[in-house]
Amino acid sequence: MHTFLKEIRYSIKGILILALCFGLFFLAFMAIYDPTLFEDMEALLASYPEVIALMVGQYIALTTFGGFVNVYLFSMSWFYFGFYFIIKAAQDIPKEIEDKTIDIILSKPIKRWKFVVGKYIRHVITAFIIVTISSLGVLIGVFAFPTIVPSEVYFNEIFAVFLWLFVFLVALISTSLFFSTFLSPRRALTLSFAVTIFFYIVGIFWEAFPEAVHGMRFLSIFYYFETSNLLVNHVWDNVVLNILILTGYSAFMIGLSILIFNKRDIPV
Amino acid sequence: MNAIEIKDLKKYYNKGKIKAVDGISLKVPKGARFGFLGPNGAGKTTTIRCLLGLLNPDGGITTINGEEINPKKDVKIRNQIGYLPGELGLYKYMTAEQLIKYFAKLFDIEIDWKFIKDVTERLEIEMDRKMGVLSKGNKQKVGVLTALMGKFDILIMDEPTSGLDPLMQSEFYRIIAERQEESNCTVFVSSHVLPEIEKFCDRVAIIKNGKIVDVSNVQELKKKSLKRIELDFENNKSLLEFNSFLSSDFPDAIVKQKYQKRIEFLLSYTQSRDILPYLSKNKWAGMPITDFNITHSTLDNIFLEYYKDSNSKGGEIV
User: Is A137 contained in some domain?
Assistant: First the structure.
């Protein structure tokens, strides 16, 4: 408990500044929303190859607020937030080992699983703060800019997707933290990025692969973070199921991380 | 009762190709000042890390205060242990004071601020500066403070004085001695510096290549250890005469260097006493010795003596 409280305490300023930047970034996106302006853009996107459409969500409707935030915010959110969390989570434990700060901590009556969970909770709280402030940016934008009509905004969907985004980021964190339990900072970082890119390709562009390997999409956390059906078509099917799958994935990964970290040596 | 007892501890790397610790057995009596002496890479730190559960041993039994433990699983036992790592890592963004408070919370320790203040003053620790800007020696002082801040039965220190200047080293050992007198704790010090172990410890184990070479008290070790003698002569003729005397009267002497007017050789503790009258009174080719120096031999030379006298087998002296 104290491990993550300490980490939060000493990095809260940085986390808040980062969250504020993301909040302003999302708010800035709200400012550019204009249904009439995006009519042509929608037509342009439709003429692009299918692979581009897949990158920005399965259903494209830039003239609606839901469609707009789906393309500009949520389909790219892994890119906006992902890098930060991959870098932080992948290097966390190996950096403690490399800096030898772990020696004093683990030489006292602190169980290794508590150490891993402490690190994990710290990142989860950071993700929560960043996602919350980003959602506030969107909320302020909805009421601040005249091009957005609040009565046409599906707030329940927007906030459900923010919750979904949070759960997705936690899954991303769990993946990186897993590698950080047994690899050096550099290797953990490299492998985290490699796996994330693999997940992205498999989870987003699975239709572009031969049918025989379509089943691979189920391995990717990106497959379970497809927000366009909800934001564009207002269909809630599989939303809860996908959130539960991502949560289950995170729990599995954190369990695996603890198991591996428990067995490993803390080298000199 | 023994504070620490290790039986047949093994730690191998690379599928057994590297034997970092190769079946060592040790008994550290309660209340002892026990030195763990060995050159770099001998297996001192590996042994300590196995003891604290930071490394998974490949075999062996560990007993702390009479209780057989699994160092990794029985974490509660670590409440009884104070630890100062050899290569100290402290959070760069914290000051010493913040670090003390953080560890106190983390380890559920009640801080004795009077004691902290006393140690801080004596070791001249800068409490309000961040770790990131401190020198190695100053960081080590903070490490000492964190190791001593709680209550413990056993204090394990791995190369504790590295980075400390000689004055601070003396003060450090004074603080440890006072602490031991108060609490009757057991002190286990690992080091590769023989004089440091000699001054502080009453018993010592010598480790080399992952095996215990000897366990003895410090006086015995002194007798076993070699003295390094350097002599300067007026001319080369004097040196040659002395050299032939050395070969005939002290055949066990190990000549390390000999050139022009200077000779450097190793002699056992007892023989070094025997040779003294010859050095002070005798003349060599009609000239007295112009200068001399007698020092402790290096650890490697002590090992030369050990390997000469004993056969090491499976970590036990036979």
Answer: yes
